[in-house]
């Protein structure tokens, strides 16, 4: 029943079989090009001050008198590790093989003008880093013995993403303790890795559902279990230079026909007179609120976001709900996504709108405005989860233009980003769909949208000092600003007509270059950005 290589389809919301498939896979989330990266030369970007050229004024937001133009938009994909759906291609690969595969995924992201990657680092009570709170992931090591592979994958993944100027969002499943058998240990304590925390704290464990598809969960209603899973995730925040903490839609499990999540003992102890449903929602609310607070206390610049199921409630149930007829996250999985936005507990939200335009139960064109209206006036940015994995299905998804239609609606509505499920589907480019939306929407690079609630330290104006051709590239020599905060990245603009358009970005330390220079001479300006995407003033114009 379980397909190891393809995530489950979440389109027929009313069907128990689909919900079952979703629950088994442990995924809530799905661009492609053959890409050969150019060789990276030693950096020409340093902190040494130089004399600023006098061939133009230094004006914030302008290059030689014309405005700078750059799209501000998150673009990324989910890189799924559970059951090796995307990465690693199989468990038990060598360090060199895992690194090579990961670098290949980053190459896909760069080729597609993405600026973020969302990597599954805690699929189900395990870890892709040396953790004091969780055993090593069997999807990495190939063994359920808890033994170290001898290296630190998370440190490598963050470093390599940053080298390519990609934000790294660490994707966690908070409460999942195991995956179902036969691939995972299911609900069998005897099959857990040595040192698994649920062995020492069996009172934290809840088995659900019954039968061969059962798994273990950390009890969301047990305060000690909740504190432990928070600490386990915050360990990664403290130890690694990640840019975001990311959850998908798995808190309480999706419902199984005829079964209820067996949390009666903790409800009796901590329910405090609430209805079971209100108590469960309050437990999830507490996790979200506390994680937001604790992340910002630890590292104020780290973003916190969740990718929930695409329907909060239907308006037939609640007048505040969306024009839809599908499963309701508020009632079925106790996720009050609307409250999280209204309370400002998130920096971004990525609803999984995995349905086509015109789908009767959940029409993309009707759900999108509901989410746009929800975030209006809040600090929470709206990014949309896109179902690249569905391309090629019968009906609307057999049209390779469907995803492009979604992105066109997003742009019109002012959505600030998209995340695509998943990496494999992006790379596969089924029916040429990815190439279509790349050409129409992602052909130029984009800067990440600024979040005003995060720390800001825009750097001073850098300087362009020279240029030379190297194959198809035009490489530019640059120096950082003489004073002020250090830049985390740079943005290169080229004047064309009445504006200067963004043509390339890079992490500080990477060669500044125009990858596709125009014929003849052109005028360029360079800016520096802090790690939150706040942009400093432009360099003096430089003709090359």
UniProtKB/TrEMBL annotation:
Organism, per UniProt? Paractinoplanes toevensis
Checking Gene3D superfamilies in the record gives: Glycosidases (3.20.20.80)
UniProt-listed InterPro entries: Divisome_Glycosyl_Hydrolase, GH, GHL10
GO MF annotations, alphabetized: hydrolase activity
Name this protein carries in UniProt: Glycosyl hydrolase
The keyword Metal-binding is annotated on this UniProt entry:
no
| Pfam families hit by this protein | GHL10 (PF02638)
Q: Which residues form the Glycosyl hydrolase-like domain?
A: 73-393
Q: Does the keyword Coiled coil apply?
A: no
Keywords assigned by UniProt, alphabetized: Hydrolase, Signal
> PANTHER family from the entry?
GLYCOSYL HYDROLASE DIGH
